[in-house]
Specification:
Layout (H helix, E strand, L loop, with lengths): L6 H5 L7 E4 L2 E4 L4 H5 L11 E5 L7 H7 L6 E3 H14 L12 E3 L8 H16 L7 E3 H5 L1 H5 L9 E2 L7 H14 L2 E2 L5 E4 H23 L1 H4 L6 H27 L4 H4 L3 H8 L8 H4 L13 E2 L9 H16 L4 E2 L1 H19 L10 H11 L2 H12 L2 H24 L6 H5 L9 E5 L2 E3 L2 E4 L2 H8 L5 E12 L2 E11 L12 E6 L4 E10 L5 H47 L13 H30 L5 H26 L4 H5 L4 E2 L7 H7 E3 L21 H17 L3 H12 L2
Helix pairs in contact: 4-19, 5-19, 9-17, 9-18, 11-15, 11-16, 22-24, 23-28, 27-28
Amino acid sequence: MAGINTPKNMKNSRHPWKFFRAGGFDQVRLESGADLTALAQLDQKLWIALSCPVEGLEFDRKTLEMIDSDGDGRIRVPEIIAAVEWSTSMLKNPDDLLKGASELPLTAIDDGSLDGSRLLASAKHILANLGKEDTPAISLTDTTDTARIFSQTRFNGDGVIPPDSSDDPEIQKIIIDIMECLGGNPDRSEKQGVSKEKVDQFFADLQAYSTWWQEVENQSAAIKPLGAATEYAAAALNEIRPKVDDYFARCRLAAFDVRALSALNRQETEYIAIAEKSLSSTVDEASSFPLAMIALGKAPLPLKEGINPAWTVPMENFTKVVVTPLLGDRDSLTEAEWGQIGSIFAPYHAWQSRKEGASIEKIGIDRAREIVAANAKDAIDALLARDIALAPEFDAIASVDRLVRYYRDLFTLLKNFVSFSDFYTRKDKALFQVGTLYLDGRSCDLCVRVDDIAKHASLATLSRTYLAYCRCTRHAGNGVTKEMNIAAAFTDGDSDYLMVGRNGVFYDRQGLDWDATIARVIDHPISIRQAFWSPYKRIARMINEQIEKMASSRDKAGVEKASAGIAGGAQKIEVGISTTPAKPPFDVAKFAGIFAAIGLAVGAIGTALAAGITGFMQLVWWKMPLAIAGIIMLISGPSMIIAWLKLRQRTLGPILDANGWAVNARARINIPFGRSLTKVASLPPGAERSLEDPFADKKSKWPQILAVVVILSLLFYFLNGKALVLKLLTGIFGI
């Protein structure tokens, strides 16, 4: 598949492609089936996306998984081309793919090829099984209900036969036995059955198990010394064998060196350690101690008295089912007798070690021999062969589901992969747009799902787009809360009230509402209008902050002065001194210096104002608006230029790349297109608006009076009062 879309193939393209320009780059138009069939010839450099993830898209997940042929969770160009080529080969008219219809007409399937004829036959078979023989089209609802499709058929080509595949009750029972021994396989109708592998294994195990049992029947007395009770007795023997072997080994070691006797019986400190606990007859710590007290010489093992409490029950069982039947009733067991018991059970253990066909134990040797005698394998193999012979026809049913999905979804995927026409034409939402965020009097349509906010933001900041990351939650009932993270692009308005912690509502593509809270923002310019006002807002904030600081400082100083005065007055009262402070003498020199400094400052400010106003008043009348505009541009111009440059760089690519896409173009989000992605609140057409606000701030008359004075002054100035006005300004501000 990797060689489908090679540069060599692309250079030989002779298809007359058409392109449209959107987002600042050329995008191919897909307008006909001929465009789709020639898609492999389109230069990959002209594809808008080179890959996209299967996860996180507003698109049918199963369709994407079908296109993702290698199952790596990503859709790439060769896989898109392969899906298009297969779909167009299955249809009489490739133009039908552009319809995006949810139902596939049977007449649209090209039955001129072997694959096409099988696919059409399977589509008809599906409809027949669903009781829709006369239906002219097949839908996704029909193809996804596979259990219902195959429920009426005995054989469905999957190589699995359930018990009801045969009319013979004995064959049905044998198939059930196979499932009991080896487990079943689900078939396409979700019934449990058996495959050829299970059948072959079952009959092989059957023969091996029967042969293994034949051995014990030929040597019954040697292998089963206690007859039917041998199996239970052997289990009792195996349970205590390690402890008995340990006991006699300790006795031999004590006989070798008497100094080891104390250590072999465990130290007193170990008994003290467990004595501090709550003891029971089966205390775990005691189970590791010797089976009985170690004595010198070849001491026999006591069977009734002096047994480790943790091993009393297993030893009683061993004595009852092994010792007594073989050696008679006794109170102890010598090492020689213990070896004799081992020799008696040795043939049984050797036979057990040679066991074959263990899976057949579930049905027993008698049932196993019944099945062998019935010679049923040939009959079951014939059923499997009959089922497998139908595999090509029924395998095509999966192809029907695939074609129905491609018929509905493939062209939509192409409009969001080969080009981004869905996104830039604004007729439909793109696959990566997960919904709409309503917040701060705006609705944002460019919202993408985000798994890791920090990881996404590290790359998405290169988009030069203002992004607000929101954590969205929704109560789904039954105490279940769903969570989702989104990144919403604000591309119109301003960011004055966009801050972490603000709440909004997010509507997903299904219309469900989620509570959304801003968790992080990536700050970039949103609009030229915001950039124009930002210097004035900064100046206003600075002045406001300074006033607040000054007021706070004065308030603090006043409080401290008052506190000091009260404290001083109280102290003077305590010592009997009058609280009336003596007035300091008036310092004429100090007052004159302060007054001179204030005069100089006022004079400098007045001189500057006089120079500015004088220069402005000397302008020709038509230059005055230009001068005002120049001052405004001097203040707002740099901010607007920076914002304009950044807005020109605003692009979609990094936002999608951070989600695993490989965007192959500089998909710009310019200012006009950005306005379409974020809608600012406005009154609807024809709405009536009352300007009377009963709670509005009372308006002062001074701005109106000042405006009248300015207008009259300008009129007087231009009506030969120029010299008088200049003299007046000089007299007021010239110091």
